[in-house]
Specification:
Strand order of the largest sheet: 1-2-3
Distance between the termini: 30 Å
Shape: elongated
Largest sheet: 3 strands, parallel
Number of helices: 6
Number of strands: 5
Structural class: alpha/beta
CATH superfamily: Glycosidases
CATH class: Alpha Beta
Radius of gyration: 20 Å
Bound molecules: zinc ion
Helix content: 40-55%
């Protein structure tokens, strides 16, 4: 059986990157790594949805890592760490990030997690991914696990999305002028034989996650 050994790794542009790149190249040879997935702004280093300007030192570092790894026969892929954004933890949208935010089943609005139906967010993400693809030319751009509608801000409970964009599209799907969040919840969570809206709501979830993914391609 063949397999591809991919290492998830972070090198910060301001923390002795030259030393870290050398260590990485040597480790990849010793451990027979095929590909390194370098993360941008991961974990505590994230400051919200990154701008292309903020990405510049990271992109320059990616190019150097790619060149060094190529010398030892290892591919470079990248993972921008955030798409919708997992949870704010004090971070906020930046000027120009006019995104529709997710709304949870409780009606709580996310502080930074974008609704995947938001056109402004989709445009932003496509531009960001296109910039990274054109500059770094990685073998792949990975999408992190915040590509989902559940498990964002705790006060949203399970998750969303019940924003106006979602409720409007859902109303069209079930041939109504409008629907409220509570009407949708009552129908899709009703016990017994599944209410017909449940399948429609799951279809809307499917569209929500697939449409922006197709645009990224
Ligand atoms: Zn939404």
């Amino acid at each position: 059986m063949s397999y591809r050994h991919i290492l998830r790794y972070l090198i910060c542009p301001t923390h002795h990157p030259e030393d870290r790149v050398e260590e990485l190249a040597k480790f990849c040879q010793a451990a027979r790594v095929d590909e390194v997935m370098i993360l941008f702004f991961a974990e505590e280093l994230t400051n919200g949805h990154p701008t292309i300007e903020e990405m510049k030192p990271w992109v320059e570092l990616m190019k150097k890592i790619k060149s060094r790894l190529a010398q030892v026969g290892v591919d470079l892929s990248v993972n921008p760490w955030t798409t919708t954004f997992h949870v704010a933890r004090g971070r906020r949208l930046k000027p120009g990030q006019d995104f529709t935010l997710m709304v949870g089943e409780t009606g709580a609005v996310a502080r930074i997690s974008a609704c995947p139906l938001c056109e402004n967010w989709r445009k932003y993400l496509c531009e960001l991914f296109a910039h990274v693809a054109a500059e770094v030319k990685p073998v792949a751009i990975w999408v992190e696990d915040d590509w989902r509608l559940h498990n964002h801000e705790p006060e949203m409970k399970f998750g969303g999305c019940f924003c106006d964009l979602h409720l409007k599209r859902f109303a069209g799907m079930v041939k109504r002028q409008s629907v409220t969040r509570q009407e949708v919840l009552d129908a899709i969570l009703a016990p017994g034989r599944p209410h017909p809206w449940r399948a429609q709501w799951l279809e809307l979830w499917r569209q929500t996650m697939i449409e922006p993914a197709l645009e990224l391609r």
